[in-house]
Amino acid sequence: MAVRACGLIIYRRLQSPPPSMVTDGIEYLLLQTSYGTHHWTPPKGHVDPGEDDLQTAFRETQEEAGLQASQLTLIEGYKKELCYPVHGKPKTVIYWLAEVKDCNTKIKLSEEHQAFQWLKLEDACKFAEYEDMQEMLKEVHQFLCSRE
């Protein structure tokens, strides 16, 4: 049985850049785990009994980053499933895309994470050491750029 987890790719837009630079104003939130290899990841976690996937994504985001659902705008039309092995067992993680309504919203980490950063795409890809995560971030960025 595959482990199932859900999360949100959180982004914010900085001040209003000139139209030609619109995508330069996007930053992604990554959290550094306080366990294992201290890898960087969007907020995510395991589905609890009786919860649907999207509820899990919002709950985990609140628990891990201190962001309430009311502080986020879920972006329609983007959902991504990543599948990879963890300790020899298959894991499926489903991500949705959400924007913080106020780019100055404070992040409050749980004990599961030791640091967070808001990163432009290039840096986010450097921090996210897994190739599928890097690909997803690039895909999200393309998706956001195509919506302008």
Highlighted features:
148 residues; alpha+beta; Nucleoside Triphosphate Pyrophosphohydrolase; seven-stranded mixed beta sheet; 3 helices; 24% helix; globular
Tell me the count of domains.
1
CATH class: Alpha Beta
Named at the architecture level, the CATH assignment is: Alpha-Beta Complex
Integer average pLDDT = 91
Any idea of the CATH topology? Nucleoside Triphosphate Pyrophosphohydrolase
Quick one: overall form? globular
Proportion in helices: 10-25%
CATH homologous superfamily placement:
Nucleoside Triphosphate Pyrophosphohydrolase
Report the radius of gyration as a whole number of Å: 15 Å
The number of distinct β-strands equals: 7
- Number of separate helices: 3
Can you summarize the main beta sheet? 7 strands, mixed
